[in-house]
Each structure stands twice: as structure tokens, then as C-alpha cells.
Amino acid sequence: MEPSVISILPFITLLLAIAVMPFIAPKFWHDHYHLVSLGLGFITAVYYLIITKGWDLLHSLEEYVMFISFLASLFIISGGILIDIKGLATPARNVVLLAVGGIIANLIGTTGASMLLIRPYIKTNKLRITSFHIVFFIFIVSNAGGALTPIGDPPLFLGYLKGIPFFWIINKVFWEWLTVLLILLVIFYILDRINFKKQPEEIEKREIREKEKIEVKGRYNFIFLGVIIASVFITKPLFLREGIMLFTALLSYKITSKEIHIRNHFNFYPIKEVAWLFIGIFVTMTPALELLGRHSRELNISSPTQYYWLTGLLSAFLDNAPTYLTFLSASMGLYGLDINNISNILSFIAGYEKHVVAISISSVFFGAMTYIGNGPNFMVKSIADHQKTETPGFIGYMLKYSIPILLPVYFLVWLLFIA
Questions:
Q1: Does residue 2 contact residue 246 with C-beta atoms inside 8 Å?
Q2: Alpha helix (H) ranges present in 52-167?
Q3: Which residue has the higher pLDDT, 211 or 298?
Q4: Pick from 183, 158, 184, 182: which is nearest to 64 by CA?
Q5: Residue 212: per-residue pLDDT
């Protein structure tokens, strides 16, 4: 039985709550966001179990377990690696750090790279850090950098879980990724150079007195990260991969010294917030995905250009992972293909490659447009706020940074590679 259009209301309500409630009722949201997420998810779950057979709901819960196990494992293990950078925080060194973050995001995920580097990045710039330092970290390390592999960003990992081959995406979007990364790094360098020149002379002398040094503690956790990466390729039996990931994360947490966690200001709040919110998102988005798959022809969305901008628009204001699945499902449904059928997935990426590329890069890139676009954005802002680092508000982030900087870059990507 087909779900009713009314059944997507909990999904819309939850996404609006995520976008608005932290700013209009911050205390209520901080104390009760998990109840809001669970409550709306419960409404959808009851509807599915009573009105429909419930199989799509079970499939969504299965994907949630895979998704959150991966994110949580990367978050916990990265929190056990301490990187301490001393010396003069020049614009060139900051560019190198962001570029490295953008590259390794494809190896340990945007979540892993963000958690690994945000604390040393803040610390090394502590004497002159401003909001644009955090914003560009989110742009590059937490989002655009992870566009090359399924490990890189949550939407691509969901695509991999659906059946898109692991190395397919890197062969299709490399130049798009490189274009965005280089432009953002150049813009950041110009802004940071201006900031650096305004730095008081006494602060610069103080930084110069510190010897250049990079200290890394908890190196054994890189082995655990390697285990997580290797386990991604395990597909059977069900949840073996996730069991390995969570056990590895637990082992890392137990072995890592308290000193490293303390110096990293490590706590579970950022991943706890993502876990509670995403259980609601994965459950409530189920009817929306099903309806899009069944009625995609009626939406009259068929070109890569349309998918690029519409996927991007929703990825900016919703979360980019369910948005990716929504439009991938819609685009496949247009041709009578089922997103839950691996052979259909393989047929689609072979015949409609540009559709998949448009949906993939826009969901990853546009996730940087707002704090709610991608899970790591939440985490980076939370860590920065806890360390008393200046970060722009929701509206300021968009008006001052993402709209004037990112939109022209993404328009250029569309013009060069999609149009």
C-alpha cells in the first residue's frame, strides 16, 4: 500500500525543527531535541507498521545502524589522536593544513578529518583566530574535501551501501573536486593573509619564539582507523561490518590515555546529538523516499542541471545524506528503476552517469551552505564554541560566507561540468 502524502509531515517538521529551534528556543532544543526526534520518528513508525507492511521502514533502520556506526567509530577513534602544532601560524601553513584535511577526508571521512584536525587548527591559530577560520574549515575539511570516496562524506557512503561501486565516484568527480578545493584554498589564503598582516607585532614575535614543532600522540589509533576503512568493504553477513567498527572504537577509547582525551577536550556530546537526530531523520524520511520513487515522473525533473540545483538546495537546508537518497531514488524512479535493487543501481550509473554525478557532488558541496547541511558541521561548531572560538550564527554564516563565496564557486562547477 502506498503511503499518503500526509505521512511526510513528520519528516518536514523534524527538518524545520533542526533548522529553526536552536535559534528561537535554544534551551528547550538543547534539553529535548532527542525527544522531538524520537517522537516524530515514532509517529512515522506506527503509521508504517499499521498502514503498510513496514519493510521500507526496516530497511531505513538497517541503513541507520550502518550509517551511525561508521560516523561514531571515526569520531571516537579520531578523538584519541592528539596533534599539537607549535610555531608561527602563517597563512601558507594554514592552507597546507586545510589542504591536507581535504585530502585525508577521503580516507577517514569528513567526520574523522574534522575531529582529527579542528582542535590543533584552533590551537595553532589561537592568537588571531576569527570566524572565517572556522567557516573555511567547515567548507573544505568537513564538506567539499570528502567528495572522492564513499568514506569521504555520508551521502556517498549511503550510495555505496545501495550498491554504487566503491571506486566509481573518484573516477567521475576528480576535476570537480580539485576545482572547488583550489578555489576555496586561494580565497582562504587571501583572507588569511589580510588577517595575518593586521596581527599585532608583539603577538607575531611571541609566535616566532615558539619553535616549529608537530607532536602526535596516540599514533596507535591510526591502526584502528585502518581497521575501520578495511571493514567498509565487508558486506556479509549483516551488521558484521558495524560490529567490527564499534568494537574497534570501544577498544580505541579504552586504550587511549585520559591525558589525550583531556587535551583534546573530547566528549560524546557532538556524536550523541547526531545519533539522536539521525534516527528521527532516517525513519521519517522513509515515506518521502517511497513517494518520490513512485511519482518521480510527475515531478518533471529529468536533467542533470535540475538534479544538481535541486539536490544542492535541499542539501543546504536539510541534511545532505537523506537528500542524496531522495533524489537518487527519484531519478531512478523516473526510469522505472528501484533504488533498493543493486542490479538497478548498476544499470542506472552505467546509463545515466551524469545524473549520479550531479546528485553526488551537489549533495556533498552544498552541505557546506549551512550548519545543518552535514553532520560534521554541527560537531565543528560545537567544539569551536566550547573552546570560546568565534563562530557566526546561522544567518551570519549564510549571508557573510556561504552565499557570497560558495554559490559563485558552485555556479562555476555547474557551468564547467554539468551544464
A1: no
A2: 55-78, 91-124, 131-140, 154-162
A3: 298
A4: 158
A5: 72
Q: Kindly write down the DSSP assignment for every residue of 123-139, as one continuous string.
A: HHTTTT--HHHHHHHHH
**Is the Cβ–Cβ distance between 355 and 311 less than 8 Å?**
no
Cα separation, 366 vs 385, in Å, equals 23
Question: What pairing do the DSSP bridges indicate for beta strands 82-86 and 213-217?
Answer: antiparallel
Helices 353-365 and 304-317: crossing angle in degrees, nearest 10, is: 20
Whether the Cβ atoms of residue 360 and residue 324 lie closer than 8 Å to each other: yes
E strand residue ranges, 163-237: 213-217
Q: Do residues 398 and 132 touch, judged by C-beta distance below 8 A? A: no
Average pLDDT value for residue range 42-63:
80
What does the pLDDT look like over 73-98, one tens digit per residue?
988 998 999 998 877 788 999 999 99
Pick left, alpha or beta for residue 237 (phi over 0 → left; psi -120 to 50 → alpha; otherwise beta). Answer: beta
What does the radius of gyration of the chain's CA atoms come to, in whole angstroms?
Answer: 21
293 pLDDT more than 70? no
Q: How is residue 205 written as a grid cell?
A: 614575535
b/e map 255-278, b = 16+ CB within 10 Å = ebeeebbeebebeeebbebbbbbb
Instruction: Give me the pLDDT at residue 203, please.
Output: 61
Can you tell me the distance from the alpha carbon of 37 to that of 179, in angstroms, rounded to the nearest whole number?
A: 37
Distance (Å) of CA 55 to CA 12, 46, 220: 22, 13, 41
Report CA torsion sign: 54, 58, 63, 68: positive
CA 344 to centroid of chain Cα atoms: 26
